[in-house]
Design goal:
four-stranded antiparallel sheet, alpha+beta, about 60 residues, elongated
């Protein structure tokens, strides 16, 4: 991820990176926060795997 972020910073005109992570994925959420991503919302029941719905947190990193 760090390599990707550093490469993204070299691309002219690119201002931000966005991603979304399941609220159940605590390790991933912590990783993205440690890299500087910020949560900017909550998408309730955004993903359904079988009969189970999962909320997603959209995250943003300003370059």
């Amino acid at each position: 991820m760090r390599v990707l972020i550093e490469r993204a910073r070299t691309l002219e005109g690119l201002e931000q990176l966005r991603l979304a992570v399941s609220t159940h994925q605590e390790a991933a959420r912590n990783l993205y926060r440690s890299l500087g991503f910020e949560v900017w919302g909550l998408e309730k029941k955004a993903l359904k795997v079988g009969p189970v719905y999962t909320d997603l947190e959209p995250m943003l990193l300003w370059l």
